[in-house]
Amino acid sequence: MKRLGRAELAELLGPHPPSDAFWNRAIDVERAVIGVDAGVVGEETGDEDQDSERARRNRRRRGEPGPDGPLSPGDIVDVGAHSFVVVAVEETEAGGRRYRIDLVEPGSDGRPLK
């Protein structure tokens, strides 16, 4: 588990980090999803050989998770006075990831709000 600030997360996510509007909406509704493409995860699909692509498709078909990418379940992202915890990671068809995050109650032990 790692704890990141908003700026540190922006560096990990590359040229299109979550905007102010994204974080404001996430705080308002107490949850959000951060999507990243395969390049951020390190799984570029264009230059791979067929065996690597086949292995990834088979892993997805079996429901086995691949590498999590820049975030993993349990990681915490601090955004000003608010914190979010990564509660799930989903691999996309294109090799990217979706990170479901939930707002953490201030002063709590890291568990998301119910």
Give an overview in words.
Residues 39-77 are annotated as: Disordered. The protein is α+β, with helices and mostly antiparallel strands and 114 residues long. The protein has one domain (3-104). Helix content is 31%, strand content 27%. It contains 4 helices and 5 strands, in the order E-H-H-E-H-H-E-E-E. The chain has helices at 6-13, 20-29, 38-41, 50-62, and strands spanning 3-5, 31-36, 76-79, 82-91, 97-104. It has a 5-stranded mixed sheet. It starts with a strand and ends in a 10-residue tail after the last strand.
Element layout with pairings:
Elements: E1 3-5, H1 6-13, H2 20-29, E2 31-36, H3 38-41, H4 50-62, E3 76-79, E4 82-91, E5 97-104
Parallel strand pairs: 1-3
Antiparallel strand pairs: 2-5, 3-4, 4-5
Region (Disordered): 39-77
What are its keywords?
114 residues; alpha+beta; elongated
